[in-house]
Amino acid sequence: MSKVLVINAGSSSIKYQLIEMPYEIKISSGLIEKINERGTNLTLHYNGNKICIEKPLSNHQEAFHFLIEMLIKNNIIGDLNDIAACGHRIAHGGEFFKNSVEITKDNFEEIKKIEYLAPLHNPANLQGYIEMKQLLNNAIQVAVFDTSFHQSMSKEVYTYPIPFKLYEKYGLRKYGFHGTSYRNVVNRVREMVGKEKQSRIIACHLGNGASIAAIKNGKSINTSMGLTPLGGLMMGTRSGDLDPSIVEFIAHKECLSVEDVLKQLNKESGILGVSQISNDIRDVRKAAMDGDNLSKLALEMYAQRIASFIGSYYVQLGGLDTLVFTAGVGENDYRMRESIIDKVKDALQIELDDEVNCSVMATDAIISSKSSKVMVLVVVADEEIVIARDCYDILKSKL
Ligand code: ADP
């Protein structure tokens, strides 16, 4: 048995799960929030217990030291040698990384080389590796990339219709993200439905960040995010796809730099930007129910954009066997699922089982009726288990 520590390090937070492999037992999970702000919070779950601690931690190094200290203090691990592998979620793997890899000196250099493709994400993700490598001498360190699942897209899908030399010079192309979540979806679809329903899947990962993927025989053939996670669907705070000339228009009219406009499109747009209430669909739905028209518009736009991608991917897949909803909104918001299905059900001959759909929250389920031509599933997002499996496979290959 091997304990695998799965790390998702962001710029001000660290999420972790400790998983016993190969039995896939989740021993502990938790979150360190607001690193470098006043009052960092650590929340740690294990054995049915929940511990919350507030402690000033001024950087990732202090945060990782504190996390390990708490794992040992609470007897979740005996000592540092208990951890056999540490898996890091890395946002961008460029074209170089088509699979998960052990982070050797050479691989580290390759990951550093593509940092310019994801300046908002990769540096914080790599910080996790740098700190854990120092702390855990005996564990292997593994990088699992959000982009690698989509490396199977064809050239005409991933190439942007701009001067080709920009691709040649900088690798400017569509990469796509949420790949680890889509791999989890593919695994769960295989377990939940018969063989005849597995070959053409459209998966909607609807969290705060949101994307959609067309998956044929287990491989991604298209996805909505692009060079960065800003493209594609309307999200909690991101705009998704726009007419590109809007960037110059806003910069000119509002006297903003390109960086400021992009900040607006990343952090102040989407559901938040249109509703002017919140990026959280729960708040926006409540406001819509209380009669707020912009909140109603935001929710309609959100569903409409997803429906429009579903239509396009239906054609690209040459039909559809299974439609999947995953992540925060997809798992929990039955009204959003219903509203999306309403827009595509006649064309795609989908029939929801309304009673089942209404009752499903944060659990795997089939929510279509028996007579539906397309199966509709809810799958609980579990990127951590996919990362732990990759770590374990690499561990085994070294034995
Ligand atoms: P992240 O992209 O941060 O990993 P999650 O997958 O955890 O996000 O999804 C977070 C989002 O899920 C929240 O912003 C919220 O909009 C949405 N969400 C969570 N629970 C519900 C719910 N019961 N109803 C509607 N939306 C929900």
In terms of DSSP E residues, the strand content is 15-25%
Taking the sheet with the most strands, its summary is: 8 strands, mixed
Q: Give me the number of helical elements.
A: 15
The CATH homologous superfamily of the largest domain corresponds to ATPase, nucleotide binding domain
Mean pLDDT: 96
> What is the straight-line distance between the termini?
13 Å
Give the CATH architecture of the largest domain: 2-Layer Sandwich
The CATH topology of the largest domain is given as: Nucleotidyltransferase, domain 5
What can you tell me about this protein's structure?
- The chain has helices at residues 60-73, 105-113, 122-135, 155-158, 164-170, 179-192, 245-254, 258-267, 270-275, 281-289, 293-317, 327-332, 334-348, 354-359, 383-397; strands at 2-9, 14-21, 25-33, 40-46, 49-55, 83-90, 101-102, 140-145, 200-206, 210-216, 219-223, 322-326, 365-366, 375-379.
- By secondary structure, the protein is of the alpha/beta class.
- It folds into two domains: 2-145, Nucleotidyltransferase, domain 5 (2-Layer Sandwich), CATH 3.30.420; 194-383, ATPase, nucleotide binding domain (Nucleotidyltransferase, domain 5), CATH 3.30.420.40.
- It has an eight-stranded mixed β-sheet with strand order 5-4-3-2-1-6-8-7, sandwiched between helices. The chain has a six-stranded mixed β-sheet with strand order 11-10-9-12-14-13, with helices on both faces.
- The two termini are 13 Å apart.
- The model has no long low-confidence stretch (mean pLDDT 96).
- The protein binds adenosine-5'-diphosphate.
- Residues 207-209, 236, 279-282, 327-329, 332-333, 381 line the site of adenosine-5'-diphosphate.
